[in-house]
């Protein structure tokens, strides 16, 4: 496959992932480095994709350890697997705090039920100590926009495993890549 076709197919698959809960790319593994320098990974829901700017939108609770860690080190790797295709995406996380323009827009699009998930105790806090705070749940709601700079595509096929690395400029432009051995 040509590199521009791989590029196009990958971003279409990610768009489908954001729309379809049954699609493998709906739940992504997001890896970051914590404040002790240790790798951390967790499952997160892909909420939206901007294929022009090469960003992935992910929602989180600003009280979570990952939010604090990403404030110090923005580097992330996002891993997804769907229909024999692995995508390993390197990028940086742009944090949009509660009530910022990006977060306020995303908040409005959430169902009341999802909004309520931000009303509980802080992620990782002891359930015996904190069962939830009584404040406005929107105060806890943050948006991560992950800007992808490198896409590592790996497709398994019985006799033709394939892999390619695609690079993007900061403005999202595809600046080329190469096929590599899987
Ligand atoms: C299926 C599934 C989807 C999840 N989606 C999200 C998500 O979209 N955002 C989020 O912050 N945490 C999500 N979580 C919880 C995280 O995996 C993680 O446990 C939590 O955010 C705390 O992570 P941290 O300690 O690294 O900050 C999800 C967990 C599961 C099992």
From TrEMBL:
Pyridoxamine 5'-phosphate oxidase Alr4036 family FMN-binding domain boundaries: 14-96
Entry-linked SUPFAM superfamilies: FMN-binding split barrel
InterPro entries: Pyridox_Oxase_Alr4036_FMN-bd, Split_barrel_FMN-bd
Signal sequence, renumbered to the chain: none
Disordered: annotated span: 115-135
Molecular function terms, GO-annotated: FMN binding
Name this protein carries in UniProt: Pyridoxamine-phosphate oxidase
UniProt source species: Candidatus Pantoea deserta
């Amino acid at each position: 496959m040509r590199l521009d076709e791989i590029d196009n197919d990958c971003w279409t698959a990610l768009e489908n992932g954001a729309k379809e809960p049954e699609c493998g790319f709906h739940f992504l593994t997001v890896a970051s480095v914590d404040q002790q320098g240790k790798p951390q990974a967790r499952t997160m829901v892909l909420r939206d994709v901007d294929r022009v700017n090469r960003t992935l939108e992910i929602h989180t609770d600003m009280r979570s350890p990952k939010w604090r860690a990403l404030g110090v080190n923005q580097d992330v790797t996002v891993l997804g697997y769907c229909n024999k295709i692995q995508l390993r995406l390197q990028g940086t996380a742009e944090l949009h705090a509660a009530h910022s323009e990006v977060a306020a827009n995303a908040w409005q699009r959430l169902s009341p039920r999802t909004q309520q998930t931000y009303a509980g105790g802080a992620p990782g806090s002891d359930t015996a100590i904190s069962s939830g705070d009584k404040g406005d749940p929107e105060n806890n709601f943050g948006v991560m926009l992950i800007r992808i700079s490198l896409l590592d595509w790996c497709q398994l096929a019985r006799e033709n495993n394939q892999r390619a690395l695609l690079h993007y400029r900061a403005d999202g432009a595809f600046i080329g890549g190469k096929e590599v051995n899987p």
